[in-house]
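User: Here's a chain of 195 residues. Predict its fold as tokens.
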Amino acid sequence: MLKEFYSELNELLIYKIKKNSKAYVEIKQLLINLNTKIIHIDNDINKRPQVSDTSYINLKMETSVYKTLVSLKNELNIKTMSELLRLFESYYKEECVISNLSVIEPIDISKDIKLALNRTNYYLCSCNEKTQKIIYKIEDIIIFNDIEYLDLNKFNELEKFGELFLFSSNYTLNDVNEFFTIYREGLKNESRFLK
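Assistant: Prediction complete.
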């Protein structure tokens, strides 16, 4: 905020005030003092020892937003702005993100298909009573409160062998073709034992 104030005062000095006036000299001196204080504050921030999980960043925001945040922080009796932002983060995670996710549930597939997919990069599950078989990668898993979730909005639906499959967008077209080849082998083995 000091830097913004400094810039505005400097513009005022350059464009609005006559150079030979007393106001010009006083504002120029104020700018010099202000600039040294800004440099001193920047140096203090840069010299501050870094605590393991604490660091400082230069965050730009509108003054009205900052005033609203400070007011909210005071209303909620929160000590620091960091705590307020952590509160927003946890609320956002719980209310906005987690509510849109689907819990990973085990899927009932044949032993032959399980064996065919064993030691591959394909993981099958179902979610929230969906009829599709969901194929995901480990990096698709979102863990919150020790519960595993998937964001099904990032999955693509395909139909094959009379079944619906949801594939993670992390799979390539070659991966999908490889999965269907492996899955088909599992189906063939299953049908041999049924005959």
